[in-house]
Design goal:
By secondary structure, the protein is α+β, with helices and mostly antiparallel strands. The protein is about 45% helix and about 15% strand.
């Protein structure tokens, strides 16, 4: 999972996020045959994949070294970075377009609409 902070008007206002399973990274084998979390692949603790616009090449190298398909996984990581960046740009553009000073009222509306729909169902 990649998470990117989104800044608007000089302050942190939200996050974008992408989730993906990288193909065949570490683990026992391809498929559902794992019996514990260590059979599932490489576990990477929370860290920065991109810091101030610079990609953490050591982290990319770790993923590549633990994969049977390193080139595909490097491309997938680049695609996930791009997804977060596009999401951040679009969020800022929406806030600009609708002159939103904060996402809080929008979030409250979504949560309240979901609550009403849940109670109705």
């Amino acid at each position: 999972m990649l998470v990117q902070p989104v800044f608007w008007a000089g302050r942190l206002d939200g996050f974008t996020s992408c989730t993906s399973h990288l193909v065949d990274v570490g683990g026992k084998c391809m498929g559902p045959d794992g019996s514990d979390v260590f059979d599932e692949g490489v576990r990477i603790p929370v860290c920065r994949l991109v810091d101030q616009g610079e990609v953490n090449t050591l982290l990319i190298d770790i993923v590549r070294a633990n994969s049977r398909h390193p080139t595909e996984n490097e491309g997938d990581l680049c695609a996930l970075i791009a997804c977060c960046e596009v999401g951040a740009r679009r969020l800022v553009a929406m806030m600009d377009k609708y002159d939103l000073a904060s996402l809080d009222p929008l979030a409250e509306h979504v949560i309240e609409s979901a609550r009403r729909a849940t109670l109705s169902a």
